[in-house]
Amino acid sequence: MLDIQLRNAISEAFQSLFDHSLPADDITLQPTRKEFAGNYTFVVFPFLKITKGKPEDSGQKIGEWIKANTEWIKDFNVVKGFLNFELKDVHWVNRLHEISQDENYGSLPANGEKVMVEFSSPNTNKPLHLGHLRNNFLGDATARILAANGYEVMKVNLVNDRGIHICKSMLAYQQFGNNETPESAGLKGDHLIGKYYVRFDQEYKKEINELVESGTQPEAAKKEAPSILAAQAMLQKWESGDPETVALWEKMNDWVYAGFDQTYDTMGIRFDKMYKESDTYLLGKDIVEEGLGKAVFFKKENESVWVDLTEEKLDEKLVLRGDGTAVYMTQDMGTCEMKHKDFPFNKSVFVVGNEQDYHFKVLFAIMKKLGRSYAEGLYHLSYGMVDLPSGKMKSREGTVVDADDLLQEMFDTAEKHTRELGKIEGMDEKEAGALYHMLGLGALKYFLLKVDPKKRMLFNPKESIEFQGHTGPFIQYTHARISAILRRANTLEVSSVFDTNNVTDLSVREIDLIYKMTEFTTALKEAAKDYSPAVVAQYVYDLAKEYNGFYQEVPIFNEENKDKLSFRIALSLATARLIRKSMYLLGIDVPERM
RNA sequence: GGUCUACUAGCUCAACCGGAUAGAGCAACUGCCUUCUAAGCAGUAGGUUCCAGGUUCGAGUCCUGGGUGGAUCACCA
Questions:
Q1: What is the secondary structure of A139-202 as a DSSP string?
Q2: Residue A75 φ/ψ, nearest 5 degrees
Q3: Are strands A305-309 and A297-299 parallel, antiparallel or unpaired?
Q4: Other CB atoms within 10 Å distance of the CB of residue A207
C-alpha cells in the first residue's frame, strides 16, 4: 500500500530530522481536499512539540526530506499546517497494474475466528414487514462483510414460534377458519395466519367494548374478555403438550414457514441454521441455579430471582418468575449458552432493533458476571426504526408496509422504468424478468443499507423506488456500462495488460479513480469494525461516480489515445470487479447489461 | 421522573473517532445524446450544523447546561 510507504517515510523523516521515534502506525494520512494540489495530506499540527518549529516550516522540512530521500514524490506543498504530497504517475500506474492483475485483490485471509450473526427473528403470527427488511438486509450484509474480513461466519435465525400471540391466531382460526388453507384462500401461508391474528384482535376489542358498556372497568375488561381467557387456556394446553393443540400449531407453523421461505428466497437470503423458540424457551434455568450458587443472582421473598446491576447503572432485573417459569431474559441466557456450544464463536452479533438496547445491556452484563469467556464478544447490532412519512408503523392502524407487497412493487416499478427507457430490446423474457428483479431488489436493499444502521431512518416509498442518483440501480448501471466496454474490448481484441513504463500523463480523473480503488480494503475493514454496511454502500457509490466522471472525460476507444487503450481497459476492468465485490458485500446482484 | 438516543441545505442522508472553504442525492434552474448505454455528465442556487457556554493552534465532532423528537424503565416477548 502506498500510504504505508508514505507513513514509513514520514516516520523516518522524524527520526532523521528531529531525532524522534514516531511509529508509522501513529501517523494518519487523509485524502487531500480537492481545492489543493496533492493526493495524500499529513497534518503536522499534532507534532509541533516534536518539531519545535512553526507549522509551515516543519511541514516544509518534512516534505523536503521525503522528496529528497524517496523516489515517488512528484511534488509537495504546505498550506498552513497541512503537508500535501503529490505522487508521481508511475506509482498510480503500478497500483492499477496490481489491482487489475489480481483477481482476489482486497480479499483478506482467514483470521481463524468464528462469528455468529443472528438476524431476522420473525414471529410466526404475521408476515414480514418493512422493519424486518432492514433487519434482514443488515444481518445478511454484515455476515458477508465479516466473512470477507476473514471470519468464519454462521448465520442463524431465531424464530419466535410460541407464546400467547401465536395462540391468538390459532384461536381465531379455530373459530372462524372453516378449514381454510393457503391454497383455498389463495394466500401465502404467513399472510393467512396474519389474517387470523388480525381477526382475533377485532373480536377481542369487540368483547372489551361490550364489557365496558355493561359497566366493567376498561383495565378489568382487558383481562376478562372471553377471547383472551381462551388464548391463555390454549397456551397452557400447548405447554402441557395437548395433542390437538400441538397438531394445529404444527399445521399452522408449516404454512407460515412455507410463506417465510418464499419471501427469504425472493430476497436472496439464506440461513445456516434455524433456531425455534419452542425448542429454547425452557433453557436458562440451570444458569439461574448457577447464578444463585455464585451469588450473582438473589432471591426475593416470593421466590422470584433477580440480578442486581445497580453498579452498572442498570438497576435490578428479574431473571426468573416466582412460580419458577422463564422470562425473556432466562431464555436468552440459555440461548446464548446453547449457541456458543453449537458454534464456539469469538463474536456473536445480535441484529435486533434499538428498542431492546436495555435488554441486551443487561444480558451481556449478566454473562460477564457469570464469567463466560465469550461474553466480551457479544455485540448488539442495534438498528433504528424505520419511519414512514405518515409516522410510525402500527399494525393496528393498518399502516404497516408488508414486505411481500413492497418487494412486488419494486419489481413492477423496475419493469416500468426499464420498458420506458427501451432497455430490453434484444433480451428474452427470462433475462428481462431477472433484470427487473435484480434492479428492484437492488434499489430496495441499497436504500435501506446506505443509512447508518444505528440511526432511525425515514422510508419514503417514492424515494426508495427512485432509480437515479444515489441509488442501487445507478451503481448497477455503471457496472452494465463498463461491461459493454469490456465486451467491445474483447471483440477488438484489446488486452487489459499494459506496459507500466509506457503510460504517462494521467488525468486527475484517472488518478482519483485509482486512488478510490486503493481504498477498497480500508472500507472493508471499517465496515467490519463498525458493523456498518453503510460504509461499503458509500464506498461503492463514490467509486461508481468516479468512474462515470472518467467515462465522460474522453472516449475510451479513441485513436488519439491508442497507447493508453489497454490502460483504460484495465481501469474499467478493475472498477467493474470492485463494484461487483462491494455490491456482493451488500447482497446486491449486478447486471452485465441493462 | 430515571436511563439511553437523535437533531447538519426545502426533503433524505454523508463528513474517514478533533483538521483546511461542512459534502452527495432528490426537488428547482442552465447546458450536453450522429462518437464506448443520457438510469449518465457538467454547472447555478441552497448552511448561524437546535440554543448558550466551555476545552485548544482548530469543534458538526469532546465537556457542561438547556430545548425538541424517539426508545426504554413489566413476574410481556
A1: HHHHHHHHHHTT-EEEEEEEEB--SHHHHHHHHHHHHH-TT--HHHHTS-HHHHHHHHHHHHHH
A2: -165, 170
A3: antiparallel
A4: 18
Sheet holding A82-87, edge to edge: A29-31, A40-43, A82-87, A73-79
Distance CA A247, CA A212 (A): 36
Please state, in angstroms and rounded to a whole number, the distance separating the CA atoms of residues A158 and A299.
Answer: 30
Strand, helix or coil for residue A496:
coil
Q: Are residues A365 and A380 in contact, defined by beta-carbon separation less than 8 angstroms?
A: no
Nearest to A239, CA basis, from A162, A136, A330: A162
Q: Are A384 and A354 in contact, with CB atoms under 8 Å apart? A: yes
CA distances from A242 to A235, A245, A248, A585 (A): 10, 6, 10, 46
* Residues of chain A (508-537) having a beta carbon less than 7 angstroms from strand B: 526, 530, 534
Q: How far is the CA of A193 from the C1' of B44 (A)?
A: 55
Strands A73-79 and A40-43: unpaired
Q: Is the CB of A470 within 7 Å of strand B?
A: yes
| Residue A554 φ/ψ, nearest 5 degrees | -155, 140
| C-alpha to C-alpha distance for A574 and A584, rounded to whole angstroms | 15
Establish whether the CB of A469 is closer than 7 Å to any nucleic acid atom in strand B.
Answer: yes
Check if the beta carbon of residue A56 is closer than 8 Å to that of residue A78. yes
Q: Which three cell numbers stand for residue A465?
A: 423506488
End-to-end CA distance of chain A: 35
- The values of phi and psi at residue A274, to 5°, are -110, 130
Residues ≥6 apart with Cβ < 8 Å to A321: A304, A327
Pinpoint the alpha helices (H) of A450-532.
461-464, 472-491, 508-518, 520-530
pTM over 0.90: yes
A215 contact partners, CB below 8 Å, separation of at least 6: none
Residue A524 CA and nucleotide B56 C1' are separated, in Å, by: 34
- Residues A377-419 pLDDT 10s: 999 999 999 998 877 666 655 668 999 999 999 999 999 999 9
Secondary structure class of A589 (helix, strand, coil): coil
- CA A432/CA A477 separation, integer angstroms: 15
A319 touches strand B (CB under 7 A): no
Asked if the Cβ of residue A356 lies within 7 A of any atom of strand B, the reply is yes
Residue A454: which of A522, A385, A525 has the closest Cα?
A: A385
Q: Dump pLDDT digits (tens) for A258-315.
A: 999 999 999 999 999 999 999 988 889 999 999 999 999 999 988 999 999 988 888 8
A352 closest-nt by C1' vs CA: B77
Grid cell for residue A485: 466496454
The verdict on ipTM greater than 0.90 is yes
- Grid coordinates representing A15 are 527520526
The gap from C-alpha A199 to its chain's centroid, in whole angstroms, comes to 35
